[in-house]
């Protein structure tokens, strides 16, 4: 609605229908109740969403069992005063709507027992009575969120604990009043909110909570992994703008920003990300190499990429790296450069990382190609195992089993990985796998018994 995504969870309909049917006004009365609650809560949440939009933040709305929630998605970090306005906007819009109903169509203007009178009564109850209840200082109600914004501004992290304690006291008082005045639903609702805050207080004991910057960075990394580049860029810039964020976090945010630029094919954003890294914690070699490739082309990018694959980066989005390499036609060039490195340990690390990046990006044929050449050069157990995984994904099952045997001969020993790796789903039922399982078990048994030459590296999937 107006560019704001809205989702209705089935639990919302189930609970509102149940409440409508128990109100004693029959099916017609229940239908009116469901319509009034749905429209009123939607208006309430749109009040939050439109205020978010006024501050440059996009959001989405979810209607669920206990009401609704508006979730911010992308945009600048709000100041405490703006947070307060967003929280007040929902009940504020509802109270205005209720006032309009009282002015234009009050219940006493309609015939007793008519659906019109019932509709007006329901509209006033939901928008005015519920709106006032929503302003109580109880999390997760809007009044609780207002108090949380104020206490966090004045008390810092201790403010969250303070507002939860206030929420517990207020919820207990409301529950007692509900029971005293014969309103069991009010009491149940208050006890439900109280239980939420009590559980949160208990879970927070001795737990080091992530800082706001850590939470934003984690969301940004998730957005990058899901291909939501705008969300990832917003998170990166948000963390870089926070003076309290430590250097290592800003370095990760700088890399995240650079990767979003690479995803957009924007040299300016990629370069800005690389340059934003703190002086003592520069951006990783791989992201810098991809930025060089984008800015200067394959001739300058190829040697930088070879070094970058050996050294890696804090953040490595496989699809972006694989696309950069394959679109530039540099795969064989990189394999040759890595193979020619005098430091065999670094060469093996670079070849392994190249193979894994291609595999995670879904470029299975190229991953297998890299693995075959890489194994010839390094005889690495993990490279052999990842080659088997790529072949299985390509439905070349016989070759996949053969490469599993090579991995075992090279020292791969992970029985659990053999059974749970999703890449190997197509080969696990083959009769040859009986022999493969037996070989891994025998190698592990020999290793446990201390047989000479029985130990070897455990593999991880590509």
Plain-language structure description:
- By secondary structure, this protein is mainly alpha-helical.
- Helix content is 70%, strand content 4%.
- The chain has helices spanning 10-21, 26-54, 80-104, 115-133, 142-155, 158-180, 184-204, 212-225, 229-240, 247-263, 267-276, 285-296, 298-311, 318-327, 331-339, 344-360, 364-378, 381-393, 397-409, 415-420, 432-448, and strands at 6-8, 58-64, 67-74.
- Helix 6 packs antiparallel against helix 7 (184-204).
- The longest helix is centred in the N-terminal third of the chain and has 29 residues, at 26-54.
- The two termini are 42 Å apart.
- 41% of the residues are buried.
Helix content: 55-70%
Number of helices: 21
| Number of separate strands | 3
- How far apart are the termini? 42 Å
Range of strand content: under 5%
Mean pLDDT: 86
Largest sheet composition:
3 strands, mixed
Task: Jot down its keywords.
3 strands, elongated, disordered C terminus, 462 residues, mainly alpha, three-stranded mixed beta sheet, 4% strand
